[in-house]
Amino acid sequence: IEVLSPLIVGEICFTGTLIAAMPLLAASALLAHRAFSVRPWSSGALYGLGAGLGADAGWRLFCHFSDPAHVFPTHTGAVLTVAVLGMLVARLTVWGRFRRSRRASSRSNA
Questions:
Q1: pLDDT per residue as tens, the chain (110 positions)
Q2: d(C-alpha 33, C-alpha 69), whole Å
């Protein structure tokens, strides 16, 4: 039996959590975009955090390492990364909405 390096195991857990969170992040971003949130940064952080925690909860069922040196940088880092991605996605959706509304208002004025 080959023993993997802790860095390789951490990389697998980090990327696995990120990949598992992407469908959750996309679905919640679509729902939040349609809801027209007043504070998109905070709503993006919250739905990103929810997507990250949901994905990490599923991933932790199969991760056999409970050492804090593994859990904090990889699992917690992945959850926080998805929360930041949620903030960026929220910012991009607001920017797209603002851009479309400016285009529509300039056409109606002309």
A1: 678 888 899 999 999 999 999 999 999 999 988 887 888 899 999 999 999 999 999 999 989 888 999 999 999 999 999 999 999 999 988 876 666 666 666 666 65
A2: 37
